[in-house]
Amino acid sequence: MCGICGMFGARQGDDRILQRMLDALVHRGPDSQGVYRHGDYLAGMRRLSINDVSGGGQPLYNRTGDVALLYNGEIYNSPALRHELEGRGVRFATRSDGEVLCHLYDEMGEAAFDRLDGMYACALWDARQGRLILARDIPGEKPLYYAPLPGGGVVFASEIKSLVRHPEVGRELNMQALWDFPTFLWIPEPETALRGVRAVERGSMIIFDARGETRRTIKNTFGPDLCIGDLPDHEAVALTRATVEEAIRSRLLSDVPVGSFLSGGLDSSIICSVAARTIPDLATFTIGFEDLADPYHGRADESAQALALARRLGTNHTTIRVTAGDFRESLLDFCRFSDQPFGVSSGLGVLAVAKAARERGVKVLLTGDGADEAFGGYSWYCHLAEAMAAAPRAPGEQDVSFQNFGIPLGERIATLAGFAPPLRAWAWHYYASEAEKARLFSRERMDGTLSSLRFFDTLARDGLRPEDFVRQDRDFYFPYEMLRKADRLTMAHSVEGRVPFAAPAVQKLASGLHMNQMVRDDTLKWVLRRAFADLLPEEVVQRPKHGFNVPIDAWLQGDWRDLLDSTFAPGSALNRHGLLAPGARAEADAMLASPTRLNGHTVFCYIMLNLWLEEFSTWN
């Protein structure tokens, strides 16, 4: 695990620029540093030592030394790949999991990436062909950004805060990305907050050489080739159990202590129960805080349930008690380490757990993220078929969404049934509407921006089944919200977050599920619950979906209300950039006071965007 950065097209004296870029990534790799130069290719890494702690420094090389790898992540099937390569006479110089890629590339070229089960973002330099390959894992767990250089070449880095240390990387804001941000609480890739910076897309590689750049897709060769939806129930349940268990066990690969998030809900309970069989002293962590409730999310605190399961499993358990004030104090870190504007308030809990884990010597944390998207875990999935079967009707109020707790559920579903599929996809899952943003953002600054509903255009053609909306969540919400949160906010404290449910094999299996295997008789994640029913206490198997819910609406109307004063003040960063509409503060107040709709996360996005703009101005 590390942070990487570099440039293809480097000039004399760029070593100082590279060092500034590396300094911005120390949190991703506090243990050591490595630098590599060959001709006009200059790159480096900051290392967090997880595997082969003493001998796995980078770059990593092939046998002849003309393939050099800088690499961020873990290759979980590296033991099997190493055994295979050694059987063909390959001799390894380190015990690092990443070295297998160098030797596979010797044998297979670009197809080597199809063999990797893991999370990674890497820069592979092929000196023989004078080309650079930037590649990212299939689910998109590890980040990698790049920007073309004006005079030719490219600069890349694990984080934008590192990338912009290069003086030729443009700093112009991307208005389209900022417009999309309050709708989703994050910026969809490959766009970023800066016009000249792009994300390497998940499951892909970009090859840079003298001819320019070429893009390739990495194949998912893992998981069952058969469609699980065509299997009888008992076979589907058994295949789910085997696939998920293997994903968890493989993600225990580590030479340093491993821990896990534990909420007491189904997903993290599965992770911990399987992991504890291999790691008897598994460290588990949960958040305990003010047990507020809101009409949409329910109770906030699940620490009692987590403690009960930890005692049953015999884990080394820690409950981290925090308050609204504690989370408030961490907002600047939350902003800084999110790297881009990010408004997913549950990330504050991830940040707190990562800090506690690191203080206790734990450098790896497993998370239960991804089970809801893979196996059908969100409450609205119970209502998809009902809404889609409703007779077509003229659409009503366009701002109605699942966040409108003040409207009876049946009425909400009937309203959503009248929406076109793209608008319905927004209404199930997301936040600020197009009209709400138009009242908060400056019309002049956002002139020409496109509707955020464009991300759901495929549903306008194909959104005929409930499964299509679930697939949209897997391909969009999961990588850009859940995986981004898991990576950025664990790495803030130099902890590696691992997501077993993101495993390519699990994702491939999930892609073949039928809706009645995900939701049956109003039971969410039906096949996953059945697969682990014998391993977990009955109360965990039956427990409804909860999630880690920060009572952001209550806090913004109480202890955090002064954040609105600084965000919407005449001299705020938002106003200095001309981003706010006249009357934006009054609009935000009215949104928070709504008796029928939860708007806290929409308003929180503007608070976080203001903080991010202030922080961005210091990145030089």
Structure description:
The structure is a single chain. Helices cover 40% and strands 16% of the residues. It has 620 residues and is α+β, with helices and mostly antiparallel strands. The protein has 27 helices and 21 strands. It has 2 domains: 2-217, Aminohydrolase, N-terminal nucleophile (Ntn) domain (Glutamine Phosphoribosylpyrophosphate, subunit 1, domain 1, 4-Layer Sandwich), CATH 3.60.20.10; 228-375 and 472-542, 3-Layer(aba) Sandwich (Rossmann fold). Helix 11 (347-359) crosses helix 18 (466-491) and helix 24 packs across helix 27. It has a 6-stranded antiparallel sheet. Strands 4-5-6-7-11-12 form a 6-stranded antiparallel sheet. Strands 17-14-13-18-19 form a 5-stranded parallel sheet, sandwiched between helices.
